[in-house]
Amino acid sequence: MDRYAVIGQPISHSKSPVIHALFAKQTNQSLSYESIEVAPAALAEQLKIFHAEGLRGCNVTLPHKQAVAKLCETVSERAQLAGAVNTLVRTDTGWAGDNTDGEGFVNDLARLGIVVRGRRVLVLGAGGATRGILGPLLGARPSQLVVSNRNPWKPEELAEAFKAHGTIVPRTHLALKGDRYDVIVNATSAGHAGGLPMLPGRLLAEGGDCYDLSYGAANQPFCRWARSQQAARSADGLGMLVEQAASSYERWRGVRPATAPVLAELRGQMGSDGPCEPVGAHQPVYHHHIELPPQD
Ligand code: ATR
């Protein structure tokens, strides 16, 4: 039986084994897919062992996405541009590195009907997650692509790194004041600590859409913000997770699984209908409740 794995540290939370098991069932293929915890110091040795053991492919997650690139025989152009590898494909003598995250992101936007072409797009954050989506995002031809960040130097560096592929306008969050965007993507990790970058009041144009690369609890702060901006659509990143997995699966198996039923199954298992449902007429109203000390 062909063997696959996802490697990272920590890894027990990974949904990749569930997703790939559903893909295998759906496409009638017999394979195994496990999650394996690998410490950074053991990465190089472990990849050699996996190769010797005959693994056909691996997904790579935190904290190995950057380091693993240096251990590959070849690295695809898109993975080089993303500065990270999330998919390893076995060759006779080693591993070919690829990155399906950006493709997964734009495929999920397409699935949701969120148009990029000709629209003003803002990406919040300038770390690894942002770097992974910028190539495919530029390829989708927005009228403007702005990257804003708390640390002002990082967007400048990204604009420089991607200049052969298109124009990225670097900004700080503060300097966004007065701007309007049609699509706002949260690629910061702030939601994992229950937070959100500090943003000027109104940023989303009428009819605009929001997308968060995070899902689950980490998506909640941005989801609430998107509602306060009256987003036409507000999506979390669970769809991207399934789409990037489908692209990896396709590279390994030569067949692309349908993603919608797998996403639905995953949401069912997580007990979530998608926290960021389309905004309709029945919007909850968020009152800012301030507790005042008792007055004498
Ligand atoms: P990832 O791989 O998730 O992108 P990263 O490379 O560490 O992780 O990048 C994290 C991103 O989230 C950065 O853009 C970071 O902003 P800074 O570069 O200014 O640190 C952003 N971020 C994380 N926590 C944040 C917070 N509380 N407010 C604003 N931005 C935050």
What is the overall silhouette?
A: globular
> Portion of residues in helices?
25-40%
Distance between the termini: 76 Å
Look at the structure and give the mean pLDDT.
92
Small molecules bound in the structure, each named once:
2'-monophosphoadenosine-5'-diphosphate
The percent range for strand residues is 15-25%
Molecular structure report:
The chain has 296 residues and is α/β, with parallel strands linked by helices. Helix content is 33%, strand content 21%. The protein has 9 helices and 12 strands. It has helices at 16-26, 43-53, 77-82, 101-112, 128-139, 153-161, 220-228, 238-253, 260-270; strands at residues 2-8, 31-37, 57-60, 74-75, 87-90, 95-98, 120-124, 144-149, 169-172, 181-186, 204-212, 233-235. It has a 6-stranded mixed sheet. The chain has a 6-stranded parallel sheet with strand order 9-8-7-10-11-12, sandwiched between helices. A hairpin with a 4-residue loop joins strand 5 (87-90) and strand 6. Helix 1 crosses helix 8, helix 4 packs across helix 5 and helix 4 (101-112) crosses helix 8. Bound molecules: 2'-monophosphoadenosine-5'-diphosphate. 2'-monophosphoadenosine-5'-diphosphate (ATR) binds at residues 125-129, 149-151, 154, 188-190, 195, 197.
Topology:
Elements lengths: L1 E7 L7 H11 L4 E7 L5 H11 L3 E4 L13 E2 L1 H6 L4 E4 L4 E4 L2 H12 L7 E5 L3 H12 L4 E6 L3 H9 L7 E4 L8 E6 L17 E9 L7 H9 L4 E3 L2 H16 L6 H11 L26
Parallel strand pairs: 1-2, 1-3, 4-6, 7-8, 7-10, 8-9, 10-11, 11-12
Antiparallel strand pairs: 3-5, 5-6
Bound molecules: 2'-monophosphoadenosine-5'-diphosphate (ATR).
The site of 2'-monophosphoadenosine-5'-diphosphate (ATR) has 14 residues, from helix 5.
